[in-house]
Amino acid sequence: MSESDLENIISFNRYPNYIALLPLILYLPIGLALCIVRIFIFLHVCLLSYILPAKFPYKSLILRVMLCVTGLPISSQGLVHTDSKKKIIIANHISSLDPFILSLLHPTVLAIENVKTSGHLQQSLNIYFPLPSDKSHAEVIKTLRDKIEESNDSLLFFPEQIKTNGKSSLLKFSLLPFEVDFPIQPVTIQAHRYLFDINVSTYASSFYEDLIWCLLLPVTCFSIKYLPVTNNKPDENVADFASRVQSNMAKSLNLRASSFSYYDVTDYTKKKQVTERFTEPAPRIVKNVSEPLLPKPVVKEDEELKRLVQQVKDVLPDTPTHVILIDLKKTRDVDLTITNILEGRVDVSKPEEKNSNTKTENLSFKAGKFESQASARQLSFAERKQAMLEAARIQYRIKHGL
């Protein structure tokens, strides 16, 4: 199997394409009203699940009937084997609702939190037995064995350790539930939706996201199937035992037994996120090739700048408006802007215009020396200003043939 097969095992999006959303948009007003009503019913389901004792004979039936009203009917196939109460239940993992649904069918089951799908609501229902994270692997196995020995509770594992779409393959199983050395009760879970092509869950979705989508859409059917209890053969190691159970469950689901594990999927999703981040197209900036984009002037300064630009235009009519505007925003002075343009400090040339033969091309209006007297400096500036104005008039006459 190649990495491309992982795309068929994991659902990264809730819907396959935008066309699938068209029926949902038409249904949305009805779905929202239905969702609000169903939320209150679901809260009553959670309340009853918490209040009713685990040994109450009709607890599972009552909760399943109430879930049907919320659009979550649960059908079961096969019988739970009661000949061996001290056993481990393993199931494939297709949504964040799986632990909650299985806890309704088996009120005494404690789900092992080896997948990050639990929410505050599920934890409040006391359906989780957390694995100790500060102990070694051998100590964890001993803790699990002691838990099974001291109570009649079965332990629920999701050996895939991550949610799949349940349409292509089963991921390679974790060996932890098989190392506890207790009989294994395999359980398969399938989910079907009608009228809408919306996935039951996604790779990163939470319990609340999956729940809201189930309450919003008309019906989401969960099918539970119990397979025969499986024991480890005398000449069979743990890895072969896990592989055999995986193959049996995959065959029951009409899926393939994949060689990919939880760690392969995690690595693939990280690479996918990095690739998407670096291949995201940059926003297109459309520029006018004939004239660069101008910064938007402030409203209060708009009229004043227009007046100054017009004064410069009266003297230098051939200078582009945007060049004058940019320099005026720096200088705020008409005479200084004219000086900058005539002395070449501002680039006003265009590719198609080369006035190399004009008489004023090589004129320089710089002062020969810095005068010590202020009156002399003022006189020098006045002379250069008059010379610049005269040069501009000459350029204008030459250009227009006057």
Can you describe this structure?
One of its GO terms (molecular function) is ubiquitin binding. It comes from Biomphalaria pfeifferi (Bloodfluke planorb). By secondary structure, this protein is α/β, with parallel strands linked by helices. Helices cover 46% and strands 9% of the residues. It contains 14 helices and nine strands. It has helices spanning 6-9, 21-51, 59-69, 98-105, 120-124, 137-150, 176-179, 207-216, 238-253, 262-278, 299-315, 321-331, 334-342, 374-400, and strands at 74-77, 88-91, 110-112, 128-129, 155-157, 169-170, 184-193, 220-226, 256-257. The strands form two sheets. It has a seven-stranded mixed sheet, sandwiched between helices. The chain has a two-stranded parallel sheet with strand order 6-9. Helix 5 (120-124) links the parallel strand 3 (110-112) and strand 4. Helix 12 packs across helix 13. The longest helix has 31 residues, at 21-51.
Lateral strand order in the biggest sheet: 1-8-7-2-5-3-4
Mean pLDDT: 78
Largest sheet: 7 strands, mixed
Integer-rounded radius of gyration:
39 Å
Share of residues in strands: 5-15%
Supply the helix-strand structural class: alpha/beta
Shape: elongated
Number of continuous helical runs: 14
Classify the helix fraction into a percent range.
40-55%
Number of distinct beta strands: 9
Distance between the termini: 83 Å
Order of helices and strands: HHHEEHEHEHEEHEHEHEHHHHH
Uncertain residue segments: 115-120, 351-361
